[in-house]
Amino acid sequence: MNPEHFSVWAPERDRVRLATGAQLHEMTRDDAGWWHVEVPGTGAGTDYAFLLDDQEQSYPDPRSLWQPEGVHGPSRRYEHRTFDWTDEGWTGRALAGSVLYELHIGTFTEEGTFNAAIERLDHLVELGVDLVEVLPVNAFDGTEGWGYDGVLWGAVHQPYGGPTAFKQFVDACHRRGLGVVLDVVYNHLGPSGAYLDKFAPYFAGSTIWGPTLNLDGPDSDEVRRYVIDNALGWFRDFHVDGLRLDAVHALRDTRATHLLEQLSSEVDALSAALGRPLSLIAESDLNDPRHTTPREAGGYGLTAQWCDDLHHVLHVALTGETDGYYTDFGTPGALETTLRRAFYHVGTWSSFRKRSHGRPLDTRTVSGHRFLAYLQNHDQIGNRATGDRLTATVSQERVLCGAAILFCSPYTPMLFMGEEWAATTPWRFFASFPDEELAEAVRTGRRREFAEHGWGESEVPDPMDPDTVRASTLNWAELADPAHRGVYETYRALIALRKARPELSDPRLDRFTVEAGDGWLLLHRGGLRVAVNLSGAEVSLPVAAVSTLLAAEGVHVGVDTVVLPADTFAVLEV
């Protein structure tokens, strides 16, 4: 067997040893601060770790691909080339025109594994989904969690099935024509198992979530490489089609070329080499068009971004909630204004932030497909005290009105797992840190946060309780219930209509007109009109319809008017 090469970047260490089982191997440092050693008799499946200076504690590889014993245990050698892919004919899935479906592997099925999720992929195909967006699968401490406390970004969480099982999931998606978007977190590391700073100056401060990376200080070139190589690896080695970049506003980078711009440039180069589209989707709190502006026009060149303003304005219209950051979105005209331009705050006053916020985008040149719109997602459900979904607050009929706006808009629609049948299961915040002190700190912090908003301690579910995870797991049996099935069929029909009528997926914002009155909306989509009544009373709108493409029960379409009872919608050809 040929000797295997091991390396690790540790520029400030005087000595580094590699541990393979009970054997220790001295490593040699090069001029760039990388330590190297070749070890005979090792290969795929070999467990290894590093000892720094003269310490006796060993640490996993910062670039580990496999952590079968958890984030505190040794790394295991993994060979990408041994996996037999069956997606040679896969040409990718572009974001424009697509419908996304966000899911969490641990609660998507009762088993909480990649293999179990594969068994449900045909449901997504039948629904009409194009891209499956998977919450983070990187290794984190404990067995159950959202995934945003990852500490080894290249290793796939073992309780989900590990790296090979994730490849099988991606391969199965591609066989069914589904692309895969993976949620990745580069803005911080989790609170347990983040050993990067033991090796090198990876850290440069902290956020409310955990330590942040050194992206622009001394020795930051290699840290940036760590991020970019990780991103490229998901595309190249795991065949994913897109990355959703968590909270990019928390990336601290003062360089002339921002990390996001460098990343988009290298991903575009890889896309050309692979011959399929690769997407980068930012989550940003900044309302800054620069993220999706092409690099040649001075932007970062990302494919798209989540658009919370669209969520907030739809949430307020459906629920009437105007607390916290929802306050501004209940002002007169907010709904139609935001639908027309994606951002509500465009350099305007934000009462929640107590300052002006955002920057306008040019609707004449910016494509609406670059902004993801959603009624619900993991954050907007899970960050509520009890993790309650929309249908715990408003009627199914009212939620379907929101779905009609969503799927008939010029934006890229995304739905959260179970939304398509009005799932009654909540989706709550949960974790499973083995360290009792850390677990109690998370539990106490969660309760204190919501106590400030008037919630009693007993009303906030314990995030460390296994029952919290079980309550958040989808109940697929609900699909057999006629009421839930009816919601599903409407979602399916709306998605099918969006795909059948190009006017509905047309992303050109300068051709999108919104009329609005007292609780009603009329979306102009080429030769189609989407009428939605959220007023609470019957309304009559002047629409001369040639045919009715889709309508809720009780809608009456006349020669030149459409009459909509409360909480109904209609898609009409004029």
TrEMBL record:
One function term, GO molecular function aspect: 4-alpha-D-(1->4)-alpha-D-glucanotrehalose trehalohydrolase activity
Residue stretches in coiled coil: none
Keywords: Carbohydrate metabolism, Cytoplasm, Glycosidase, Hydrolase
One GO cellular component, as annotated: cytoplasm
Pfam families hit by this protein: Alpha-amylase, DUF3459
Domain Glycosyl hydrolase family 13 catalytic: 102-498
Chief subcellular location: cytoplasm
Positions marked as site (Transition state stabilizer): 379
InterPro entries, sorted: DUF3459, GH, GH13_cat_dom, Ig-like_fold, Ig_E-set, Trehalose_TreZ, Trehalose_TreZ_E-set_sf
Active-site residues annotated for this sequence: 246, 283
Catalytic activity: hydrolysis of (1->4)-alpha-D-glucosidic linkage in 4-alpha-D-[(1->4)-alpha-D-glucanosyl]n trehalose to yield trehalose and (1->4)-alpha-D-glucan
Annotated localization: Cytoplasm
Gene Ontology terms describing biological process: trehalose biosynthetic process
Organism superkingdom: Bacteria
SUPFAM superfamilies: (Trans)glycosidases, E set domains
Pathway, per record: Glycan biosynthesis; trehalose biosynthesis
Chain sites annotated for binding substrate: 244-249, 308-312, 378-383
Enzyme Commission code(s) on record: 3.2.1.141
NCBIfam families listed in its UniProt record: trehalose_TreZ
UniProt record similarity statement: Belongs to the glycosyl hydrolase 13 family.
Protein name per the record: Malto-oligosyltrehalose trehalohydrolase
Annotated source species: Actinokineospora spheciospongiae
